[in-house]
Amino acid sequence: MKTLRFRAALLSLAMLAMLLLVWQMATLPVAKSAKVAMDEEYAVLMGKSVNSEQRKVSGFPTPSQFSTLAFKQLSDPFYDRGPNEKGIGIQLAYSLGRVAVGYLIALLVAIPLGFAIGMSPLLYRALDPFIQVLKPISPLAWMPIALYTIKDSSISAIFVIFICSVWPMLINTAFGVAAVRKDWLNVARTLEVSPLRKAFMVVLPAAAPTIITGMRISMGIAWLVIVAAEMLIGGTGIGYFVWNEWNNLSLSNVIFAVLMIGVMGMLLDLLFATLQKKVTYAE
């Protein structure tokens, strides 16, 4: 196992080195194109000065230029110089806050309802048509309705996170509860265990791996959707940061923000993967 991990790590490093080499080769300096000249002329017309350093990083950055920018961003991630100039740490905090609130509300709704559906075939058949109709709807399709109804962009984004998070948790919880082995339930019935005690002592431990899987999927979708939602609502958040930097013609900051989105998504998934291992048992 250790040998396999070591070889996998070496292969990953080799792939990274190849990617950086291709990146470096693709961003070698070339003669100024008409497009670059037009971009600089546009910047001047907009009242922005274009010095030699800006000319170097106005297009796709080289690995060294990107490293310099990333170090600058990470060295002071919580600066706040106004509405459109906030550090990457502040923007990520806003996004994580919205995701946390919407995800928690979805958790409080989906887990109990999933338990009820999983333990009641009648309720499952009654609610299944509604679930099948509402589940495929894109979360962002709810944004105009949320904005019109709630009239608050930040709360509307939280509502969208709730909508996209609730279905995987609800379906996986119902499936996990319904799939609990019948002989375990029969033993609990023989021992005259109360329904509440049976739910917590028998059903929940047995269904926990499936429930965590649903929570893990929901978190991945929520983190995916919040970026697009913040591009629509504006103001704050990592999605707004990406869109704002694109409007500022700063491709380097856009790439840096995309990388931060990926890293944060990986950390969130790793958190749930660790939790899943804790509740998974071998028969």
Question: What's the gist of this structure?
Answer:
The protein is 79% helix and 0% strand. With 283 residues, the protein is mainly alpha-helical.
Distance between the termini: 22 Å
Largest sheet entry: none
Count of helical regions: 12
CATH-assigned fold name of the domain at 95-236: MetI-like fold
Tell me the fraction of residues in β-strands, as a range: under 5%
Q: Look at the structure and give the CATH class of the domain at 95-236.
A: Mainly Alpha
Strand elements, count? 0
- General shape: globular
Structural class: mainly alpha
Oligomeric state of the chains present here: single chain
Which series of helices and strands comes N to C? HHHHHHHHHHHH
- In angstroms, what is the radius of gyration? 25 Å
Word description of this protein:
With 283 residues, this protein is an all-alpha fold. The protein contains 12 helices and no strands. The chain has a domain at 95-236: MetI-like (MetI-like fold). The protein has helices spanning 2-26, 34-45, 52-57, 63-75, 88-119, 121-134, 143-150, 153-178, 182-190, 195-233, 238-247, 251-279. The two termini are 22 Å apart. Residues 52-57 have low confidence and may be disordered.
